[in-house]
Design a protein that fits this description.
mainly beta, Immunoglobulin-like, five-stranded antiparallel sheet, about 50% strand, elongated
Length: about 270
């Protein structure tokens, strides 16, 4: 059967419209962790003025059953047999020139839900071990140690994010005397969660330094053994920090300086 020129032109127009429509469709991908909460989506009108922006939604590759022909959509995630803590990918297909908005995108971000089951410290290797349960989504654990009259970050480990039993090990620098640490986790709420304080006593001798508290030096600080340290000027600006058995302060201007080391906060004069 021969096609007339008119029919050929019409066929080409249909093909071009189909290609144009395919190119015009966009995708919005949202990935995260199922927390047992539905997603709420604002669905604006298409720029053509006909119909709404969203054309289709998929959840982990399955077409959503929710009606997209409305201005607001509650995406019922409980329909997909998802378990809390399971990875989820939502793809919102929409027309060009308009953009849907997910009102509670944080609902798929990991939350801090861990329960601290047990802790242990190996004094031979200076390693802190702790066991958790009930994690939903992988978040870092930060270990803080109380010294120099403040909580100081001393270690970090990425959480496994599974609800079963998880064991972690982090090397911790001990100072002399009572060592206090706590576990911190920060999620999308930006409000940190802390474990209870955990304490150990280290019987090693206290670190001392020359020239000693309120002493004076013209060029060098010497510790009785290697230690973490910080040096601040009279105005509270931190000038040096690190770990070692000595510090070169020869370039410091004359004046009073404050030094944090071991578990102490003291001062010295630079001549």
């Amino acid at each position: 059967m021969k096609l007339s020129i008119k029919n050929i032109v019409c066929l080409l127009l249909v093909m071009l419209i189909g290609i144009s429509s395919a190119k015009a469709e966009k995708e919005m991908k949202i990935e995260g962790i199922f927390q047992g909460v539905n997603l709420y989506i604002m669905n604006p009108f298409a720029t053509t003025g006909v119909g709404f922006c969203i054309t289709k939604i998929t959840v982990n590759g399955k077409a959503a059953l929710d009606d997209t022909n409305r201005s607001s959509i509650e995406l019922n995630l409980s329909l997909y047999q998802l378990k809390k803590g399971e990875q989820i990918t939502v793809i919102i297909h929409h027309k060009d020139g308009c953009t849907p908005k997910v009102l509670n995108v944080d609902a798929l971000k990991p939350k801090s839900t861990f329960t601290l089951v047990s802790t242990k410290f190996d004094k031979t290797t200076n390693t802190f071990s702790f066991t958790t349960q009930g994690e939903i989504g992988s978040l870092p654990f930060e270990i803080e140690q109380f010294k120099w009259k403040k909580w100081v970050p001393v270690g970090k480990v990425q959480g496994k994010g599974t609800s079963g039993t998880n064991v972690y090990q982090v090397p911790i620098p001990l100072h002399s005397g009572i060592n206090k640490i706590r576990i911190k986790q920060l999620d999308c709420t930006r409000k940190p969660r802390y474990s209870n304080e955990i304490s150990w006593t280290n019987t090693v001798a206290e670190v001392t330094f020359k020239p000693g508290n309120n002493g004076s030096t013209d060029g060098k600080i010497t510790f009785s053994r290697s230690t973490d340290y910080e040096i601040y000027d009279f105005y509270g600006k931190r000038l040096k920090a690190g770990k070692g058995s000595s510090i070169d302060v020869s370039t410091f201007p004359k004046g009073t300086y404050f030094i944090n080391y071991d578990c102490k906060s003291e001062s010295f004069e630079k001549k």
